[in-house]
Design brief:
Layout: H1 2-8, E1 40-44, H2 53-67, E2 71-73, H3 92-96, E3 102-111, E4 114-123, E5 128-137, H4 142-158, E6 167-174, E7 181-188, E8 195-196, E9 204-209, E10 215-220, E11 227-232, E12 238-240, E13 247-253, E14 259-266, E15 269-276, E16 282-284, E17 292-297, E18 303-308, E19 315-320, E20 327-328, E21 335-341, E22 348-354, E23 357-363, E24 371-376, E25 379-384, E26 390-395, E27 404-409, E28 416-418, E29 423-429
Parallel strand pairs: 1-2, 1-3
Antiparallel strand pairs: 3-4, 4-5, 6-7, 6-29, 7-8, 9-10, 10-11, 11-12, 13-14, 14-15, 15-16, 17-18, 18-19, 19-20, 21-22, 22-23, 23-24, 25-26, 26-27, 27-28
Helix pairs in contact: 2-4
């Protein structure tokens, strides 16, 4: 399905020349390495169109940028200039008068059954165009075009890749807790376009994207046998990953997508194995009488973080990709679980249980620099945005009927609830779409 969408989305990037070249007086940028960043005021005008679609595209762009916590879209009622020709240079003084440090203009048109969207990003204090691009797509892909434009704006101003043109797989939950129905769900990162990938006949857990975004690996209790499966997103075809005698669970792809790493439980303990998806050969990486699980590769594939209770309670360990040099990195109070390596490689996110509360936190791969980002009755299951700046997780408050998805940035601020069709848990963020 993703590949079909890519074919439908005929993406054309083209630089749009500024109508008037003027000297640069300022450079609009956000230094996102400064920690708690003051959101940048930005004016996002409705893209011109004959049918209102331009305003809808602008609305998605504004929502994406605002949700990042780095931008503060200005109320349109404050706008002084009405943009009637997005090819003309705006009256910059009208935009600086309302403290807009950046301005977005553009139009959306229909050409031969295709949607054409173009935008320009202006530096209002520098009196210059920062970037101009245009895109062609099937009309039903207009939300994705908006996400791509938001990514382009984010990257131009922050200097880092955005994360808006992405998807999230999750476990959708419905029904009473005593008879909970679970399905694999997939949606855009902002909660739109959600659809179910399984019918709910089997309990499913821990879905994880492949690096090429075409497959999901997950655990299913189909036929009362807890096993790891692969699901092709385009065809819906499901395949068992290895016919092991014991329970397999907690799968995740290697960074090159050629292997699946998972836990195999036999005789009361669980160890970590990898399976080469081409040869179907397996390699055992741990050999203890403990529960070793939740493995996660470093981005370069040379190391693996995992949780183990070999020391008496759950802690985070790191080992080389061949299983050598296993060593503990978490030493704080409480129990640590679900380690996930950042796509940037600089941090490991985790769940920490201490007393009656669960926290989502991060630490460096050597275990130093532990920071807790959010704490509550039950927070669990962190997953990284592809740019390594935002973490999504699920939360179930005390006394609630079910969990919901939330996101939070690395500063511990800008916590956001992600809308889902019902209860949702165990999210996994995709890489950027192509």
């Amino acid at each position: 399905m993703i590949r079909k969408s890519l074919v439908r989305l005929l993406l054309v990037l083209a630089g749009l020349t500024a109508a008037l070249a003027t000297p640069a007086y300022a450079v609009v940028e956000i230094n996102i390495n400064k920690g708690n960043v003051q959101p940048m005021p930005i004016a996002i005008t409705d893209l011109l169109s004959n049918d209102g679609l331009g305003a809808q595209v602008s609305g998605v762009i504004a929502a994406d940028l605002q949700r990042s916590g780095l931008f503060a879209p200005i109320n349109k009622q404050a706008f002084i200039e009405k943009i009637s020709n997005p090819d003309s240079t705006p009256r910059f003084q009208d935009w600086t008068a309302i403290n807009a440090q950046a301005l977005v203009t553009g139009r959306v048109t229909q050409e031969g059954g295709r949607l054409r969207a173009e935008f320009r990003l202006w530096d209002t204090y520098g009196n210059q165009q920062m970037v101009g691009q245009q895109f062609y797509a099937q009309p039903d892909n207009w939300r994705r075009v908006a996400h791509i434009i938001a990514d382009a704006i984010y990257e131009k101003i922050t200097g880092e890749k955005g994360y808006f043109d992405t998807r999230v797989v999750f476990v959708a939950e419905s029904g009473p807790k005593t008879a909970r129905k679970t399905q694999l769900g997939i949606m855009d990162q902002d909660g739109f376009n959600a659809r179910m990938l399984t019918d709910g006949s089997d309990l499913v857990l821990t879905p994880r994207f492949s690096p090429n975004r075409q497959e999901v690996t997950y655990m299913s209790f189909a036929n009362q046998q807890p096993r790891v499966y692969l699901l092709q997103l385009q065809t819906g075809q499901r395949e068992l990953v290895g016919n092991f005698p014991g329970m397999t669970f907690s799968p995740r792809f290697s960074p090159d997508g050629q292997r699946v790493i998972m836990s195999l439980q036999q005789e009361g303990n669980a160890n970590i194995y990898t399976m080469d998806l081409r040869s179907r050969t397996t390699t055992r990486l741990t050999s203890t009488a403990a529960i070793d699980t939740s493995p996660s590769y470093s981005p370069d594939g040379t190391q693996i973080a995992f949780e183990s209770d070999r020391g008496g309670k759950q802690q985070i360990y790191v080992m080389n990709a061949d299983g050598s040099n296993q060593h503990r990195i978490s030493f704080g109070d409480g129990a640590y679980s679900t380690p996930v390596w950042s796509p940037r490689g600089d941090l490991i996110a985790f769940t920490k249980q201490s007393g009656q509360s669960f926290s989502i936190g991060v630490m460096k791969p050597d275990g130093s620099g532990e920071r807790l980002l959010t704490t509550g009755f039950h927070n669990e299951g962190p997953t990284w945005a592809p740019n390594g700046r935002v973490i999504m997780f699920f939360r179930e408050p005390q006394g609630s009927s079910g969990p919901q998805l939330y996101s939070i940035d690395l500063t511990g601020y800008n916590e956001q609830k992600i809308p889902t069709p019902g209860f949702a848990s165990d999210p996994a963020w995709s890489p950027l779409l192509e």
